[in-house]
Predict the structure.
Amino acid sequence: MEIIIQSTPEDAAKVAALFIKQLIERKPNAVLGLATGSTPLGLYTELARMHREDGLDFSGVTTFNLDEYIGISSEHPASYHRFMQESFFSHVNVPTKNIHIPDGNTSNIPRFCERYEEQIRQAGGIDVQVLGIGHDGHIGFNEPTSSLASRTRIKTLTEETIVANQRFFTLGESVPHHVITMGVGTIMESQNCLMLAFGAGKAQAVASMAEGPITAMCPASILQMHRKTLLITDLPASSLLTKSAYYQHVYAHKPNWQRF
Ligand code: F6R
């Protein structure tokens, strides 16, 4: 795992966006795995700026989102369909036919999930999967004790995640308890993982993920076994890493040919 510590979330988002820009320039038909939540917002803003000002072209890009709530309409303000439309897709030129987000209203969840996996395979697999991390170490909505080999499926959210996500729903409205999420095994098959983590509240999860034991109690820790994971944090989120001075030294002395 490569760990890049930046002073601010804005700086971190720029590094992450540059990684994706270079991938798209190298491979115009790149397949992006996308996340929702607060964490990737700066990244999406920066990618939209690159599209607007630098002509970054998403017309050949295909996307697959990690997850969606079950039982709310895709028009609901807190649905991940709406979130993605408002924070990213309406600002770039990914063709609508290339956008994939789990359907939380499907009448046959197992069949939908199998088909989602098949669509990822047919697209040639995910080139880079954007990830945030939950306070409990979840990735996608793979909560603690999720199988580290799991595939896209239904999951029940923990109380902690429901409370954390209440901020996206109006007062008095309850957060759905069930979601469709890519599995940990699905995420592990992507060529690159780009994990972003910001703020002191994520410091414990980041330390467990990067330096703790590999355990289903912290699903993100399996990324220690991933062939190419880039973890980009701000300073507060890195504060519990025991080897942060080493990670900063590595980044500062990266050979030029390895820089992006
Ligand atoms: C979102 C997702 C989740 C979030 C995580 C962190 O698609 O899969 O794993 O990345 O819950 O959420 P934020 O970024 O809101 O702190």
The pocket of fructose -6-phosphate is lined by residues 35-39, 66-67, 132-134, 138-141 (CB under 6 Å). The CA atoms of residues 154 and 180 lie 5 Å apart. The chain has a mean pLDDT of 97.
